[in-house]
Structures are given as C-alpha cells and as structure tokens.
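Project standup — Tuesday

K.O.: blocked on the structure for the chain from last sprint. Re-posting the sequence here as requested.
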Amino acid sequence: EDPTKNITAAELLGDAGTKDKFVTRAVADQICFGENLLELVYSDIAIDTDNERCPKCGSYLLDDDVVVGWAPNPQEYTTQCQACKNKFVPKFRVQSTNQSFIGSKGPGTPLICERL
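H.V.: unblocked you, prediction finished:
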C-alpha cells in the first residue's frame, strides 16, 4: 500500500463518528502497533475517553463532544465546552487490574492522561 495515502479514522478505528478525520498510513500503523503492544502487556486494559466533565460548569462531555470542541490548529491542545464555552485540556483514563499497573495515585488506581 501507499504509505502516504491518508485513511479515515473510521477505517482505522471502526468508528462511524470519525469518518471525516484522516490520518496517514504511517500514523495509523503506529496507532495499531501501540494498541497491540498495550494489549500484550495489559490484557485487560481499558481506555475511557467518554467520561470528561467541564471544570467550569460540570457538563458531561462524551468523546465526540471533546472532538467537536477542538480547534483546527494542531498546536492548540484545548477543547471547548459546548455548554459554557470554557476552554480546557481534556483528559482520558487508563485502567487495568494487572498488579504491575500503576495509576496516577498508585497501584489499583486509573492513570489520568491529558489528551495532547
């Protein structure tokens, strides 16, 4: 395949809601590699991107809401709450029951990551 050909995120992730988002084949390959590696190390890994709250108004944002709030500038890492228009850096949570997994507050806790 042509490594410079862009593919839709929907093709990569199987998500119809991302059909207008594109990544290069090289980026898609790296995403797949990373996901496979994580699953090898932590077979029960769970990544939650649908549990975000606006720090200003407390509105609940699904993954699609976070994506809609992003600016087209790749140097801008904030999303915008549709309810109050507050801009903030969204986060996601990674969890595993594997005893070697260490979260943000130690073993047995989720790892909280900024979506940069």
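K.O.: great, moving the ticket to review. DSSP finds three helices and eleven strands in the chain. The first strand starts at residue 6 and ends at 8.
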